[in-house]
Amino acid sequence: MARRPTTALADPVLAAARDAAHAEVLAAARKFELAATWAAMHPASVTDPVVTDTGVVEMYGDQPVTLAGEGAPGMSEFAVAEFAAAIGISTAAGRNLIGAALECRHRLPRVWARVMAGEVPVWKVRRLTEQTHRLPMTGAAYVDRHLAPVLERCSFAQIERAVETACAQTEDEKAELDRLDAAATEFFQVRLGDAHLNNGRVPVDGLLDYPVALALEQALQAGSHHLLAEHPELTLDQRRALALGHLAAGSAGVAEVVVYAHHTPAEGHGIVDVEKLGHTTTEQLTDWCRHLATRVTIRPVLDLDAELTTDAYTPTVLQREQAVLTNPTCVFAHCARSARGCDLDHIEPFDAGGQTTSWNLAPLCRLHHRMKTHGHWTYRRLTRTSFEWTSPSGDVYDVDRTLTRRRTR
């Protein structure tokens, strides 16, 4: 942050902007402190798991979670979600924030002191804690000792170098850290969420072990060569991409690729809405069906306002489809998990008299379903797409498909 001028001629707008920027730093530090305080108020406790008749362990109640490195305390999983809802972020984002606060407070005490004093911004500390959580206590202490005095001036590259040096300083554990780090760097991502940015094309990237990469390359070479006779008009890159699709379908035994596309024929445009992707053209949809051995199923229109009911506990196929189309994501505050993978919850419990009807069914991801069932969260439906949630602390959240806000009374 720029040093304040001592002259009385300082521009009042710049002075006010500096004050506002410093207030933001202090506010972020205060929220960081409250995250650590909340974790201390809700320590980890072991809940006995439920074992089914088949011997499968099912995690129903609250579970302890470890969010920071060696020596930092764990906390209640349900408490993470409650804190995240209170500050207006998703549960996953709340885990990251609380984890960074615990890492800093318990393993980087010098850095913590400077954050609390407003001398180092929280956003930079979080880049540091992303690197230090894997270090043993001695390594974290080394980083804390050397970076705390200068962290506000350090680049991200300097932070990474300090962490690598800390690894070298702990020779007794360095070999194991190196082995774990090497395994941890392997990944393969199919970024479906970015398809809408690339006209329906999905970015794929990864870092593979050499033997795995070699086997994949050989398979792609063979597959693209085989496709040359069938698709001479395609480039090598296009044939390789198509070969990867055939390879995945063949190895997994996939009989069909399911794409949920919604279109109103009466509309004059040729745009369809594809779940998890957004809008695309009918021509693009046709290409997808043409390039893969796809089975196309056209389902009849489903009335989202119809009140479907069954006497059974388990919802019917039509009830599930209706619930997913009505609320495409988990209906908990700030949760964006696709309803396709969610549990279908009885808002009023079935064993308490709740019926298996459209009005009484809503999609909840497994964590938020557990919280509702075992964590003293309650909710009620206001409209087809809006809900009122009440936390164990008594906070009330109004939730709909696009908006969540904490109600003040």
TrEMBL record:
Coiled coil: none annotated. Residues 319-370 form the HNH nuclease domain. Signal peptide: none annotated. It holds the Pfam family DUF222. CDD domains: HNHc. This is DUF222 domain-containing protein. It comes from the Bacteria. Gene3D superfamilies: 1.10.30.50. It comes from Nocardioides agri. The lineage of its organism: Bacteria, Bacillati, Actinomycetota, Actinomycetes, Propionibacteriales.
